[in-house]
Amino acid sequence: MFPWLAERDGQRYDDEASRRDGRCAASIDARVPRGMLRTMAPTTFDGTAGYLVAPELRDAVNVAIDLEKPLLIKGEPGTGKTRLAEAVAESIGAPLFVWNVKSTSKARDGLYLYDTVARLNDARFNDRDIRDIRQYIKYGPLGRALLSDERVVLLIDEIDKADMEFPNDLLHELDRMSFSVDETGETITAKKRPVVIITSNNEKELPDAFLRRCVFHFIAFPDEELMKDIVRVHQPDVEDKLLSSCLVRFYWLRKQPDIKKRPSTSELIDWIAALRRAGIPVERLEGEMPFVGLLLKKEADVEALVNVKTGKLRSIRQ
Fold first, then answer.
1. SS3 letters for the chain?
2. Closest of 195, 210, 199, 204 to residue 156, by C-alpha
3. Fewer CB within 10 A of the end CB, N or C, for the chain?
4. Angle, alpha carbons 107-113-118 (nearest 5°)
5. CB 192 within 8 A of CB 151
6. Cα pseudo-dihedral 92, 40, 157, 203, rounded to 10
7. Choices 3.40.50.10860, 3.40.50.1980, 3.40.630.30, 3.40.50.300: CATH for 16-218
8. Each residue of 165-194: pLDDT tens digit?
9. What is the Cα–Cα distance from 220 to 222, expressed in whole angstroms?
10. Are 133 and 190 in contact (CB under 8 A)?
11. Model pTM score
12. Cα angle 87-90-92, degrees, rounded to a multiple of 5
């Protein structure tokens, strides 16, 4: 039984402690059907040594795994959406297949490609017997995940980069976990249903039909207390005073309304690493932000910071 479920009518997936935590937006707001508690498997994911997970996110992952539904993860860049799939794969001991979606991606690309050029070249130069079309079928990440003899984790990364029809074109494959290879007449059906994690930066809306088939979770940006724990995973020996001072400056910077691309967790970790290697004293952070190029990546944002520091917009201590 999941530790965050209790056998009583009306119990929600997220317990009271998780709701009070407030570090991530609640993603599951459904009541547990009677009888489900007896069939659910034990918790399989609780984070890893290198990936700290808030209770709500842990619950979303485990529900998606147990119900065999895709997990749709949204959140601003740098909140650990892609790293989540790596952590889940590590935690359950499964291989990770990654499908990096691009603006030109089509759903069939993730299943397979028929290499007609190679077949034509072989026919032209008599390099091999071209009658076996299967040798010219190149399977994509989703196709390989369905062909695998063991359970795998499939990451479909940044699905919102593709066109609007892309998610709908995946509905059958994600529902049935099977697909047909038109050139050979074969039907491929998954032996082990993969754990599917889909990420989105919320650049465009996803179709309702697609959303209905997913467990959804929004990863909120970590608060200062959780961020301290995250930084210490990567830099366990960072000085308390330096860490506290960096976090004050980091969150102050994120709150500035004129900063368009707010710095992310990974950029904070890199910034702290640079400060430590350069031996920058903590006192220097009170009046300036050394190596600001590790935090701000747009010229307009750097200029906005300069304006703030010179008092043209607001006091730097606000």
1. CCCCCCCCCCCECCCHHHHHHCCCCCCCCCECCCCHHHCCCCCCCCCECCECCCHHHHHHHHHHHHHCCCEEEECCCCCCHHHHHHHHHHHHCCCEEEEECCCCCCHHHHHEEECHHHHHHHHHHCCCCCCCHHHHEEECHHHHHHHCCCCCEEEEECHHHCCCHHHHHCHHHHHHCEEEECCCCEEEECCCCCEEEEEECCCCCCCHHHHCCCEEEECCCCCHHHHHHHHHHHCCCCCHHHHHHHHHHHHHHHHCCCCCCCCCHHHHHHHHHHHHHHCCCHHHHHCCCCCHHHCCCCHHHHHHHHHHHCCCCCCCCC
2. 199
3. C
4. 160
5. yes
6. -150
7. 3.40.50.300
8. 899 888 888 888 899 998 888 998 998 999
9. 6
10. no
11. 0.77
12. 105
Supply the Cα-derived Rg of the chain in whole angstroms: 24
* The three-state (H, E, C) secondary structure of 131-162, written as one string: CCHHHHEEECHHHHHHHCCCCCEEEEECHHHC
Read off the tokens for 168. Answer: 């709908």
Domain segments of the chain: what residues? 16-218, 224-309
Q: Token pair of 7, please? A: 């056998």
Give the number of other CB atoms < 10 A from CB of residue 263.
21
CA distance 20 to 47: 20
Q: Are 79 and 221 in contact (CB under 8 A)?
A: yes
CB of 21 within 8 A of CB of 54?
yes
Q: Could you tell me which of 244, 218, 221 has the C-alpha nearest to residue 232?
A: 244
Comparing CA positions, the residue from 305, 296, 221 lying closest to residue 262 is 296
| Inter-residue contact 72 to 211 (CB < 8 Å) | yes
